[in-house]
Design brief:
This protein is an alpha/beta fold. The protein has a single domain, classed as 3-Layer(aba) Sandwich (UDP-N-acetylmuramoyl-L-alanine:D-glutamate ligase). It contains 11 helices and 13 strands. The longest helix has 15 residues. The two termini are about 25 Å apart. The relative contact order is 0.13. It binds adenosine-5'-diphosphate (ADP) and magnesium ion. Magnesium ion binds next to loops. The site of adenosine-5'-diphosphate has 20 residues, from helix 9 and helix 10.
């Protein structure tokens, strides 16, 4: 049976309020001015969902928010990128999370209120969601307390429904890394940490050793190496991929999520793993040519133009 969605994204939802061009950091009891302000869709999972949808994968999102104006902004931003929001729960008793970021030159300070995302559990995902999509992607389990507890169950359900699966852990703010990866990874087809996360989870000091640690647990491990590109281990066979280097990075917010969107879009199109890695690196690089995680990804045409303009690369979706 033809599935309605290529991918179901399970994850956290929040907004980002970014205050820019402030003259100094505020001190307790004082007030300062920012010359620029931007309120936009935040959260790694939502950035990923937006970008893979713009690339052309049919995308649905499952998550939880409050019934408030921040929640409205999240819904309208996702809908404007064609992400299906029918599996997003709005709970009157909860608030949509927010991150306030203060940018001061190259430095930034952030405060996050997680809101409803903390309480979202596998039991809140409608059974239909697993039936209608070919692939499950989960991001940021360490920001989702309830989902983290049931993470093995979530991936088992997806596998039982015949889905392929992927996981991007993102950083654990508590640095406990308290997920049973040995139980979980056999149900994960593609594991997508960045270098710091890979080393922290495996407790290894080199990428090669860390990749070896995961061999046998998970068939495909892809580690993102920032401006060094990325590396893949397929059943222990390791291959590095050079980046499409951008020496004029605007910012790298969401680069890993954009990498994931390129890699998984190519995979869901049936491309070989080398092509998926190249597409991941290219989308990560394009991400760094505009501000924020979705700035460079407003349409397919814009992505194509940026690929030519910055990296002299012609892409087919
Ligand atoms: N300066 C850069 N030039 C080109 N590509 C980059 C640059 N920085 C990051 N990337 C691309 O973005 C991907 C993800 O970036 P990374 O910072 O490793 O992930 P995360 O955002 O998860 O920490 C990298 O694997 C690479 O492909
Ligand atoms: Mg990341």
């Amino acid at each position: 049976m033809e599935k309605q969605f290529d991918i179901l994204v399970v994850g956290e939802l929040n907004v980002d309020l970014i205050l820019d061009e402030i003259k100094s950091f505020p001190e307790i009891g004082t007030e300062i001015l920012a010359d620029k302000m931007n309120l936009s869709l935040g959260s790694s999972s939502a950035i990923f969902a937006s970008n893979i949808s713009v690339l052309g994968s049919k995308t649905a999102f499952a998550g939880m928010m409050g019934e408030d104006s921040f929640g409205q902004l999240v819904l309208s931003s996702l809908s404007s990128k064609n992400v299906d929001t029918r599996f997003i729960t709005q709970d009157k008793t909860k608030k949509t999370g927010a991150t306030i970021a203060l940018n001061y030159g190259e430095e930034r300070a952030m405060v996050t209120f997680p809101g409803a995302m903390k309480d979202y559990s596998v039991n809140d995902i409608p059974a239909e969601a697993f039936k209608l999509a070919r692939h499950l992607h989960l991001s940021s389990p360490f920001l989702q307390d309830m989902m983290k507890k049931d993470i093995v169950q979530l991936f088992k359900i997806a596998k039982e429904a015949g889905m392929t699966t992927s996981l991007d852990v993102q950083w654990d703010p508590e640095e406990k890394w308290d997920i049973d990866f040995e139980a979980l990874l056999p149900f994960v087809d593609v594991f997508l940490p960045n270098q710091n996360e890979l080393l922290a989870i495996s407790k290894m000091t080199s990428v090669e050793r860390a990749l070896k640690f995961f061999t046998g647990l998970c068939k495909v491990v892809v580690a993102k190496l920032g401006s060094e590109g990325s590396v893949i281990s397929e059943n222990g066979a390791v291959k590095f991929f050079r980046p499409f280097l951008n020496n004029n990075v605007v910012d790298a917010i969401g680069a890993g999520d954009s990498f994931n969107s390129g890699f998984l879009h190519a995979m869901l199109k049936g491309k070989d793993l080398d092509s998926c890695m190249e597409m991941g690196n290219l989308m990560g690089a394009i991400n760094t040519t505009a501000s924020g995680g979705t700035g460079a990804f407003t349409s397919k045409d814009e992505i194509k133009e940026r690929a030519i303009q910055f990296f002299n690369k012609k892409i087919q979706f």
